Amino acid sequence: MVGITSYGVYIPFYRLNRVEVAKSWGGFQLPGEKAVANFDEDTVTMGVEACRACLKGFDNGDIDSLYLASTTFPYAEKQSSALVAGVLDLDQSVATVDISGTLRCGSSAVRIAMDAIKAGSADNALVCASDLRLGLPNGAKELEFGDGAAAFLIGSADVVATIDNMYTVNHEIFDVFRPAQERFVRSWEDRFVREVGYIKVVSEAVRAALQAFDMEPGDFAKVVFGSPNPVYLSGAAKAAGFDPKAQAVDPLWGMIGNTGSAHSLILLCAALDEAKPGDKLLWVNYGDGCDVLTLTVTDEIAKIQKRQIVKRLVDSKAHTTYQKYLRWRDIIATEPPMRPRTEPASAVALYRDRKCGLALYGSKCRNCGTIQYPVQRICMECRTKDDFDYYPFADKQGKIVTFSHDNLAVSPDPPSTLAAVDFEEGGRIMMDITDRDPSQITVGMPLEMTFRKFRRTEGVQVYWWKSRPIR
Amino acid sequence: MESIKDRVAIVGMGCTKFGENWDKSSDDMIIEAVYEACEDATITPQDVQALWIGSYWSNLPAPSQPLATLLKLDYKPITRLENMCATASDALRNAAYAVASGVCDIALAIGVEKLKDSGYSGLPTDDIAMGLVSTAPNTFRSRNFTAPGHFAMMATSYFNKYGLDPEQGRTMLAKIMVKNHHNGTMSPKAHFRREITVEQVLNAPIIAWPLGLLDCCGVSDGAAAAIVVRRDMVKNFRADPVFIKASQIAVGPSEGYMNPKNDWTMVKETYRAGQAAYQEAGVKDPRKEISMAEVHDCFSITEAVIYEDLQFSPRGRCKEDIEAGTFELTGELPVNMDGGLKCFGHPIGASGLRMVYELYKQIQGKAGPRQIENPGLGLAHNLGGTPGGCTISVNIVGP
After folding, report:
1. Which one of A2, A37, A62, A208 is most buried, counting C-beta atoms within 10 A?
2. How far apart are CA A449 and CA A471, in angstroms?
3. Is A306 exposed, middle or buried (0-12, 13-18, 19+ CB in 10 A)?
4. Which of B85, B216, B318, B390 is catalytic?
5. CA-nearest residue of chain A to B253?
6. How would you class A239 by CB atoms within 10 Å of its CB: exposed for 0-12, middle for 13-18, buried for 19 or more?
7. In whole angstroms, what is the distance from residue A223 CA to residue A217 CA?
8. Considering only residues 438 to 467 of chain A, which have any Cβ-Cβ distance to chain B shorter than 8 Å?
């Protein structure tokens, strides 16, 4: 049977309290908080995190397809899935595809992966949805939108949940949309969006799907509705014949917000974290139409459930401020410090450095075994020349040898915390520590690696790695 | 391998006032330092046979032609060089080596830096040092890097290793800065000339924890120059020449950045350059035989660790010597008599020659109110880079 063989999510470390936002504007108050990506994160970095969580314990070499879904890819022309494949060190034969244009892109990507596997053109497809959407300041979308990512490994071996049925409809409507040249999501009147868009389309699609599948609402232990907020969810669930209180998976609206194309995937992961073998799940995802899928949880679920992926990341958090959020998103311009012009990175140098810089490979000397980063052609211990194996650092933990909190370094999240990080099997890298509380940083503190954005010059976004306290 | 000891003499030196020299260009400062040095040696620039000019961040428009144009030199060999903050020390070493080799009788070393045309306080961040700290040059895959951030990491590690809580450690370091400020009040050419207290250092704004504003040296403009000649020629110039006893540079393979064996509580380059210089000068017991030192106090922690790396203090125990006043002007081994980088200022490419300028004046008994008694061997220690990987110059001079 074909289905989900592993899953992972990424929820950023920071939360923004909605009441704080409302207080800044003296406007309408909504309760709860939303997950916000740090200044050094984007759709790609969050997607990488979700994929790495999903692939923990799996061999990246088995993957033959990567489908990356988002409405907020950093480049209109330049494939984000190829970048993610480079970071994950996937084989060059992996088929990479970016899928975009609708909040339904994540579930559509899973459908495409399923079809590819059933057709025999793929065996193990990595599917990831990641989004970092913006609403204009002082608007409901800004309050509701959260940031996050989720990834599924789709295959036929040791499946944790089989995907049994798939149904889809398309539906042309201007309800929620973002013109290609604009940064902020727009929408039509909320009642039109809810009644004629979401509730009508979702409920009709689910009813039609269940009829086609010969199933009933009562068959499902849990149902996942990708929805902008609990009001929409409850309206559609009831109209489709479900009991939202008993059956719907908590949309985490008050904890992480609506995470766009990643949202229903994150909720499905949350459902899988809690599911029992034999449970049937319904997964409904909306956006310019509706995807409806049904799943059956298998005995294999226990091995993934040990990670408690969603709850752990929902609980691992710190709060940022609205001012910082506005700065991180480049919504307000702050006075730049008097500093030299930011030198542009060279695309040529980045190209040469992709294995070392993107996939975080160092070298391990074949003569003396010394591990070092970046790759050293001449071993720093025994001086042997050009006799080394590439050594992966990305999956290793390190600890702080020494650190400082630098107020002089220009950072949207000052102070800049930097450290000498020594790794468990050997090697040292000088790194920033991100997603940290400066008061908690100590010598000896364990750290893990996280892929992040660095400078962006002349359209070229530099990515590399930082360290963070273990989440 | 032969030693340079006593083969080369410094017969003239010049140094501008260091500071925010808004009214002086790098050209103005070069002329000032070179003519002071030439007048001191009773020669003119035309008498010099070869020149080395060091500058790091000033963006001089071309390597060497501007100097010939500026000084109207008569088709002489000129070399522009840089070796990070140890640039001027390396200019002196190159000039001294040329003279020691016998192919040149009179050579001039110049160091100059114009930092304050830039529009910012502090140094540029990481761009220029990118080859050292990123995965590869021109990628800018690098931590967010400033000089204070890196040296602060040495303070964190030193405090942690030797069991100092932040207040104890910062107080120890503050005393070094108070000493250098005191000395700076007696240096007419120094950038900063005011006394400070330990409390002021501890209460200053934090630049990079655990270092505050007053743990950091000045960012200054300035130039310095030295004229070196063969030993057997000194009588033609002056009765009180200063001889080069050792001139060593050690450049490390950046072990602090990559090698877990390096714990950021010492700078191995300083230790190695010091050992090489002591051997060259025939120094067996540095604490006893070195009578004064100008060292690279870019940050308070740097000077503390230098005491240990140069074996002035036992490893991990500089605190005892700091508290005993060992390195004060009237102490057993005065350090940074002219105020050091902290107060005299730090125009990157000029500092190494400024250090030697102070030793030269002390040996000649011309240091005014900061003159130490019976100066013998003087040591100049100049650091370029960060504790994780650097260029260290140690020059020893004496009567």
Report:
1. A37
2. 11
3. exposed
4. B85
5. A380
6. middle
7. 9
8. 438, 443, 454-455, 462-464
CA dist., res. B170 & res. A271, Å (int): 52
Q: What is the DSSP secondary structure assignment for residue A183, as one 8-state letter? A: S
pLDDT at B131: 53
Residue B304 φ then ψ, to 5°? -60, -45
- For tokens 């010597």, what's the residue? B321
Cβ contact, residue pair B146, A339, below 8 Å? no
Interface predicted TM-score (ipTM): 0.94
Alpha carbon of A296: minimum distance to chain B alpha carbons (Å): 44
- Measured in angstroms, the CA of B122 and the nearest CA of chain A are apart by 8
Q: How far is B316 from chain A (nearest CA, A)?
A: 17
Q: Does A340 touch chain B (CB under 8 A)?
A: yes
CB-based contact B141 A380, cutoff 8 Å: no
Q: Is A371 on the interface with B (CB under 8 A)?
A: no
Architecture per CATH, B146-216+241-398? 3-Layer(aba) Sandwich (3.40)
Query: What domains, with CATH codes, occur in chain A?
Result: 3-328 (3.40.47.10), 364-469 (2.40.50)
Q: Following CA atoms A48, A52, A58, A60 in sequence, which dihedral angle do they give, to the nearest 10 degrees?
A: 30
A385 touches chain B (CB under 8 A): no
CATH topology of domain B8-118+223-236: Peroxisomal Thiolase; Chain A, domain 1 (3.40.47)
B145 and A340: CB-CB below 8 Å? no
Residue of A nearest to B137 (CA): A349
**DSSP code for A214:** T
The pTM of this model reads: 0.95
Active site residue B346: yes
Residues of chain A with C-beta less than 8 angstroms from the C-beta of B133 = 430
Interface test with chain B among A361, A399, A430, A450, by most B beta carbons within 10 Å:
A430
B-chain residue closest to A347, CA distance: B139
- Tell whether A245 is within 8 A of chain B (Cβ): no
The CATH 3.40.47.10 domain(s) of chain B lie at 8-118+223-236, 146-216+241-398
Secondary structure of chain B in the HEC alphabet? CCCCCCCEEEEEEEECCCECCCCCCHHHHHHHHHHHHHHHHCCCHHHCCEEEEECCCCCCCCCCHHHHHHHCCCCCCEEEECECECHHHHHHHHHHHHHHHCCCCEEEEEEEECCCCCCCCCCCCCHHHHHHHECCCCCCCECCCCHHHHHHHHHHHHHHHCCCCHHHHHHHHHHHHHHHHHHHCCCCCCCCCCCCCHHHHHHCCEEEECEEHHHECCCCEEEEEEEEEEHHHHHHCCCCCEEEEEEEEEECCCHHHHCCCCCCCCCHHHHHHHHHHHHHHCCCCHHHHEEEEECCCCEHHHHHHHHHHCCCCCCCCHHHHHHHCCCCCCCCCCECCCCHHHHHCCCHHHHHHHHHHHHHHHHCCCCHHHCCCCCCEEEEEEEEEECCEEEEEEEEEEC
Phi, psi of A409 (to 5 degrees): -65, 135
B381 is known as an active-site residue: no
- pLDDT of A24 over the 80 cut: yes
List the single residue in B160, B205, B258 with the smallest CB-CB distance to A373.
Answer: B258
Q: What is the pLDDT of residues A410-469, one digit of tens each?
A: 899 999 999 999 999 999 999 999 999 999 999 999 999 999 999 999 999 999 999 999
Determine, for residues B153 and A405 on separate chains, whether the beta-carbon distance falls below 8 Å.
no
How do residues A376-403 score in pLDDT, each as one tens digit? 999 999 999 999 999 999 999 999 999 9
